[in-house]
Amino acid sequence: MKILVVGGGGREHAIVKKLSESKKNPKIYVAPGNAGTEEIATNIAISVTDFDSLVDFAKNEKIDLTVIGMDDPLVGGIVDRFEKNGLRVFGPRKNAAILEGSKAFSKELMKKYGIPTADYENFNDPQKALKYLKGADYPIVLKADGLALGKGVLICKNFEEAKTGIEELMIDKSFGDAGNTVVIEEFLEGREVSVLSFVDGTHYALMTSAQDHKRANDGDKGLNTGGMGTFSPSPFYTKEIDRYCREHIYQKTVDAMRAEGREFKGIIFYGLMLTKSGVKVLEYNARFGDPETQVVLPRMENDIIDVFEACIDGHLDKIDLKFKDNAAVCVVLASKGYPLKYERGKKISGLENFEGKNDIFAFHAGTKRVNGDVLTNGGRVLGIAATAPTLKEARNKAYEATKLINFENKYMRNDIGISIDSYD
């Protein structure tokens, strides 16, 4: 079986690793991949947004299944393009990927179908947004409507900060067209939890819960990033909360998309906030999270190819999704300066320490191989993950494993999963 994975980050490395463990013994290609995927698959130098070249490659190589890892190609309609060419592909079509591609759309969907979320207003005129903000309660949240690499969310403590935020998003266009529309949202207090689910258009199958750490610095301070670390499962995602979400959020979302003529097949990622007044949806993603995937897939027992195919064929209800009774923690090793300016091309040492291990993993995110050396090639460089019987043990093991890796300007948070100690 031949499989193509589209993407080149830590999430895609985790997907490729899981695919490589399949009993179907697939031959895996990754476009464009990184230095980590290169070790277990064949990297192809094609951009994730070069749909024509990706389709041509899949047709010429007789690829049996393509898995889309990243948001940009999904929102851009890559699944539609592959299907039009008779190619089998895992991921939502363009009209369904809008669930992530437009926060304004997802908020309107939740409002229409009674899915719990924060109060909000959508604006495409900066002056009207500023007028609204003058009478708003603070803190308040500004969200760029479109894709912004997980960074287009601003929490503003007062009107002056909000005004600066509107200028940044809507006038200066810090995130390009993503800021043409801005969602102004009530600030929710509580604990954030991520839940990923496989979806086949009608049915869903939940993966284990996880929790991300978005801020760049310890204590959840600093700028928003794509994610500085994760742990799974979340002890705060209780059976009671799970029951509530199954009744009021998960199936409702799948049914709402189908009712809107936007049948969703692929991954729906639910960003949830556990507030005093109940669970509310912060955001949807239309693909695996990064770095959530790096702690969720190592715990999954199923052959992932079987699950992908069940989603495509509408038979997900026939899959008994199972996860190990253990825990996982991932600590992101970043380039100093991320998410702003940082240097690339620094030599990475110590990766050989992870070879042959089944409880610690070095998931490559921003890396490349040059003349036999692995070099840094992005803001988030590696995700150092570990599994263990408890969250505390997994965290200790992951942080010990970070000491095995060295590169100039290495940076990481030192408090990933600290909040879980009293729950072990």
UniProtKB/TrEMBL annotation:
Single GO molecular-function term?
Answer: ATP binding
Its pathway is: Purine metabolism; IMP biosynthesis via de novo pathway; N(1)-(5-phospho-D-ribosyl)glycinamide from 5-phospho-alpha-D-ribose 1-diphosphate: step 2/2
Which InterPro entries does the record cross-reference, listed alphabetically? ATP-grasp, ATP_grasp_subdomain_1, PreATP-grasp_dom_sf, PRibGlycinamid_synth_ATP-grasp, PRibGlycinamide_synth, PRibGlycinamide_synth_C-dom, PRibGlycinamide_synth_C_sf, PRibGlycinamide_synth_CS
What keywords appear on the UniProt entry? ATP-binding, Ligase, Manganese, Metal-binding, Nucleotide-binding, Purine biosynthesis
For the ATP-grasp domain, which residue ranges apply? 107-313
In which family does this protein belong, per the annotation?
Belongs to the GARS family.
The record ties this protein, via PANTHER family, to: PHOSPHORIBOSYLAMINE--GLYCINE LIGASE, PHOSPHORIBOSYLAMINE--GLYCINE LIGASE, CHLOROPLASTIC
User: What protein name does the entry list?
Assistant: Phosphoribosylamine--glycine ligase
